[in-house]
């Protein structure tokens, strides 16, 4: 009898020991996993080596470059910012319009639309990913930048760009947020009809929507209508009304608003929105001249182009113009039927004085634009 109890006791002790041992092993494993995690995190502390990324988007002429200039001229933002620029068309004008930054702080992505490139992952042809790799391996160390702003074209769908950042493995980049610039008067005139699909996607993916050009908005009621429209598309975005994109950097950079789950929800909505994709029939005409232009006839030519734009649908004109007898570069900025031409910085010594004008629109009459420009610069052989 005694031996029966002894065996049962030993068995009980053994099973307590075994179950304790299993629990200890489990605890030990868990502890080492936790430790490994802690080591991995402390080996790469947030802030020191992760580079926050802001995607800056918005339709043609909404004010993206204006906002960039405002950020870069803000005295105490404290970041060394790298800018990745992408432009509609074969020529880059925007990077010449960005002030206050060393030239090697801007990378211009010219050979193709950033969002189309980013959506071509399956073809192993993601130009954006290649540039990001290059920035990290070559330029992060030599230039020491600690913030990246990706400025999309006005015709970009930001979705594939966001997706690229989400799918980067073991990257030092951290998507901070999507900031969308809005030309508020243009939004008011298109929101109930013909809103370009890209503008819609830019609003839907935004973490922050800057309702810009408030100086051109008629009344508070109009602003309320624009805000309500954006809210209906994107209830969680932060709305910031502004003029000339003069916003505090604290509202734009390192705001940690990007949320992958929310992005997935918005992606489903964008995909379900009819007409998703690039606005059809948008083209770009580049006009260049190496002879100086005479101010008055140039102004008359511009008036004609803008006057004809109602049926040709010119969205955007921008450029750098060399005016005869003047040492300043003249900057041409036109959005829909409003344009300005104003002197900016001086031409540098030895810099070729080349005029470059980009016209972006729907159903553009390329032949008429090019031939009237040739007449203006005195190159037309037929006159
Ligand atoms: N009246 C007014 N004009 C503005 C405002 N913000 C920007 N602009 C003007 O709008 C024009 C277009 O501004 P940009 O900053 O170049 O716009 P963008 O979004 O970079 O344009 P894209 O190069 O077409 O993508 C410029 O002439 C700006 O000076 C504003 O708040 N009010």
TrEMBL record:
One GO cellular component assignment for this chain's record is: cytoplasm
Residues annotated as domain CobW C-terminal:
282-377
> Does this UniProt record's set of keywords contain Phosphoprotein?
no
Superkingdom assignment = Eukaryota
Q: Which InterPro entries match?
A: CobW-likC_sf, CobW-like_C, CobW/HypB/UreG_nucleotide-bd, P-loop_NTPase, Zinc-reg_GTPase_activator
Supply the alphabetized keyword list.
Chaperone, Hydrolase, Membrane, Nucleotide-binding, Transmembrane, Transmembrane helix
For this UniProt entry, which segments traverse the membrane? 6-25
Catalytic reaction equation(s): GTP + H2O = GDP + phosphate + H(+)
**What terms describe the molecular function in GO for this protein?**
hydrolase activity; nucleotide binding
Q: Which family does it belong to?
A: Belongs to the SIMIBI class G3E GTPase family. ZNG1 subfamily.
Its protein name is: Cobalamin biosynthesis protein CobW
Native organism is Achlya hypogyna
């Amino acid at each position: 009898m005694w031996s029966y109890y002894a065996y049962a006791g030993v068995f009980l002790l053994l099973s307590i020991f075994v179950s304790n041992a299993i629990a200890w092993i489990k605890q030990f494993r868990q502890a080492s996993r936790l430790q490994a995690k802690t080591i991995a995190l402390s080996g790469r502390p947030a802030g020191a080596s992760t580079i926050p990324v802001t995607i800056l988007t918005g339709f043609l002429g909404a004010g993206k470059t204006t906002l960039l200039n405002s950020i870069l001229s803000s005295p105490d933002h404290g970041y060394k910012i790298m800018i990745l620029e992408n432009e509609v068309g074969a020529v880059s004008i925007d990077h010449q319009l960005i002030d206050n930054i060393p030239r090697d702080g801007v990378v211009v992505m010219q050979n193709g639309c950033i969002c189309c490139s980013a959506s071509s992952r399956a073809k192993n042809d993601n130009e954006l990913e290649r540039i990001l790799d290059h920035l990290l391996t070559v330029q992060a160390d030599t230039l020491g930048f600690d913030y990246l702003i990706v400025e999309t074209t006005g015709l970009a769908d930001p979705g594939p760009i966001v997706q690229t950042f989400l799918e980067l493995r073991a990257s030092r980049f951290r998507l901070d947020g999507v900031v969308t610039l809005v030309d508020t008067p243009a939004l008011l005139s298109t929101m109930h009809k013909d809103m370009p699909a890209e503008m819609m996607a830019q609003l839907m993916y935004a973490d922050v929507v800057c309702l810009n050009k408030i100086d051109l908005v008629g009344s508070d009621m109009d602003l309320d209508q624009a805000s309500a429209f954006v809210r209906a598309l994107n209830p969680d975005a932060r709305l910031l009304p502004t003029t000339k994109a003069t916003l505090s950097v604290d509202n734009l950079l390192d705001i940690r608003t990007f949320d992958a789950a929310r992005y997935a929800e918005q992606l489903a909505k964008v995909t379900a929105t009819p007409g998703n994709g690039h606005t059809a029939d948008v083209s770009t005409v580049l006009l260049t001249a190496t002879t100086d232009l005479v101010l008055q006839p140039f102004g008359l030519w511009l008036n004609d182009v803008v006057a004809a734009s109602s049926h040709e649908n010119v969205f955007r004109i921008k450029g750098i113009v060399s005016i005869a007898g003047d040492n300043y570069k003249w900057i041409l900025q036109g959005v829909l039927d409003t344009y300005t031409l104003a002197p900016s910085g001086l031409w540098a010594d030895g810099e070729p004085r080349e005029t470059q004008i980009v016209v972006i629109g729907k159903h553009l009459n390329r032949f008429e634009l090019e031939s009237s420009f040739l007449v203006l610069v005195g190159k037309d052989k037929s006159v």
